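[agent] plan:
  1. take the single chain provided in the ticket
  2. run structure prediction with default settings
  3. attach structure tokens to the ticket
  4. add a short note for the reviewer (M.T.)
[agent] executing step 1
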Amino acid sequence: MNYIPKTLLILFAAFCSFLTSYSQQKLKPGYIITLQGDTTKGFVEYHDWDMSPTEVLFATTQKSKTTKYGVADINGFGVNNIKYTKATVSVDSVSNQVESLTYVSEFQIKTYDAFLLTIFDGPKNLYYFKNGNQEVYLFINRNNNYELLRYKRFLKDLNGSPHIAENQGFLTQLAEYLNGCSDIKEKLYNTKYTLPDVSAAYKYYYACLKSYATYEKEQQKSHLKFNAIIGASLSRFGNTKPDYVYLNALNGKQSVNIAAGIGLDVFIPGSNQRWSINNEAIYSSFKGRSNSVEYFNEGRYNNYDATVSLSFIKINSMIRYWFHNAKVNYFLNAGMSNGLAIKSINKLITDEQFYTSRKQTEGLVIPTLRKHELGLLLGAGAQIDRFALQLRYEYGGSLATQETQLKVQKLYLLLTYAF
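[agent] step 2 finished; step 3 output follows
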């Protein structure tokens, strides 16, 4: 694209302003726990944290200025029915991701302070922590000490080739910790080191004892995320063939149109919510109009008024990769679009001047206009809580089925809301 029209720039600035305003004003009732153990009620800036936060913004009233508190400043906080507790934790410094595995089976311990997400609070506690490398750690509290539930993957030679082995010490720890239930070991037999699996063991334990936790965090029940989509598209005509005057006049024409639809993100199991399949049904349109003159001599020339307009329902399928951060999640996506035209205008008005006579005819700009369009998609965006802003490029195929070639490239600016 040679340039982006002022309208699209205004929309982009407005969306960015909206997201900035939204991120600054989503204070929700909450509290902080001071280093002296006192609870101060007020308002906490809430984020749907994927990684465990290292700081939190707190204000005594919704209109007062927020103050930033880190792990060294408070003992914990709560907001939106979730609770974070400060703890001194010891974790393995070696990643469990395949590309980082070594032949060392022992834990390489490092210790630091962190905010732990409370999953269960009561006679038996469970805490969750995810660091910036997407490593997940689970903890129990025993005798006022936060104890890592130990799990480690390492390499081990088997028949001369490396294989992945596991240290599942967490199963022994849980069997001891949840020892009030006689058949807890059987329940733990197939338990994996994931939050859903370990949470299920806790629920079984409390049900076995006919008891209840004083607090249980509501678990995420689905890896599906539905989205409402609204935005604008910038379309540009190009690659017109053959060398007709009215087709050449369409080359480079641009239009800004509304785009809207719905989408579904399906996160791939085992990817730590880094990979998702994104499917969309979206309305998109474009329109190009040109006025041109084909000049032969002073007495003979043709005036052309050419209009090509198409409205599509598009099914987009993309693979999306997420970069998770404490406040803003970024993503890249690529895929294909499959559009079916629901409305079209393909009109060429020719005003032919032949010396003293004049004749007007109406025909087609593209004799064999294609009502089905395939395209390639590339995009990038950022998400704050439930809102995401995305810039996407679409390279479409030819709109003609025979020798005439007319392609449309599109640039989208899309705002989505997840629910």
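[agent] step 4 note for reviewer: The first strand starts at residue 27 and ends at 33.
[agent] ticket updated
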